Amino acid sequence: MSADLRATFRGAGLLPRMLTALVGIPLILVADWQGGVWWAGLIAAIVIVGAHEFGWLHPGLSAGARGVTMAGALVLAASIVAVGNRAVTPLVLAGSVALAAAVIAHLRAPVDHGVAVLPRWPTALLGSLYLGLPGGVLVRWRFEAPYAAIVWLFVTLWANDTTAYFIGLAAGRRRLAPRISPGKSWEGAVAGAVAATLTAAVGSVALGVPLWTGAVLGVAVSVTSQAGDFFKSSIKRRAGVKDTGTILPGHGGVIDRFDGLLAASPIVYLLIRLYGR
């Protein structure tokens, strides 16, 4: 390894990232294993802290609007968990379409500091959708599926993120979206997608799902999680901050760490439900 490459890895803050992962990953896996109130409580904590961070990232929101973001996220999450089996698919589909439209609008708009993409109250409602939709999906998914299904999702996300991160550091040359996230490269993105696809395909076979179905879901995980990363980055650049928070050393805030999960979980859950029909 060259001296320049070693310096790059040292400057990336790997030690605090690894220490946070050593604590966080077992916590997630234990909560998933226990299911029930343990899993719901963990997801609720992520939604609540994430709503606080979303409000902080949008200083133009009043205290009332920030309260709407948090309350709306919790109500939407609870609705997805409680709604009947026939209604959940159209509800998640409608939420996913609305969220995708908002993400596209953010990615197309200028990312200059202080630029607001939406007015105050639509921004507050976007925060509710951004956090409440995946929050409800993750709780309901665990109620419907075994422990291993959620592990499959997390491992696929980790394979995507870790591979993209290290390949990007070591070999990233072509910037993927320099206007939004200068550190992201095509090399890292492609490597992450390949890793996610292979991981999801192998894991799906272990769960009794056809190989090619798992591969397609892996592609969906990679593409949507990377879109979620860019969405988060665009918000941070407009807010003029490096991280969404400080609660997770080496990572920043909850949104920094779970942006891929927030974006990918509704789409993957929806594809699984549609495929199952």
Shape: globular
Quickly count the domains: 1
Distance between the termini: 50 Å
Give the quaternary arrangement of the chains.
Answer: single chain
H-E string: HHHHHHHEEHHH
Question: Can you count the helices?
Answer: 10
Strand order of the largest sheet: 1-2
Portion in helices: over 70%
- State Rg: 18 Å
Description:
The structure is a single chain. The protein is an all-alpha fold and 277 residues long. The protein contains ten helices and two strands, in the order αααααααββααα. The protein has a two-stranded antiparallel sheet. A hairpin with a 3-residue loop joins strand 1 and strand 2 (181-185). It is globular and about 50 Å long.
Task: Please describe the structure with a list of short key phrases separated by commas or semicolons.
mainly alpha; 2 strands; 3% strand; globular
Can you lay out the helices and strands and say which pair or pack?
Blueprint: H1 3-10, H2 14-34, H3 36-57, H4 63-82, H5 85-108, H6 120-144, H7 147-171, E1 175-177, E2 181-185, H8 186-206, H9 211-239, H10 254-276
Antiparallel strand pairs: 1-2
Helix pairs in contact: 2-3, 2-7, 3-4, 3-6, 4-6, 5-6, 5-9, 5-10, 6-10, 7-8, 7-9, 8-9, 9-10
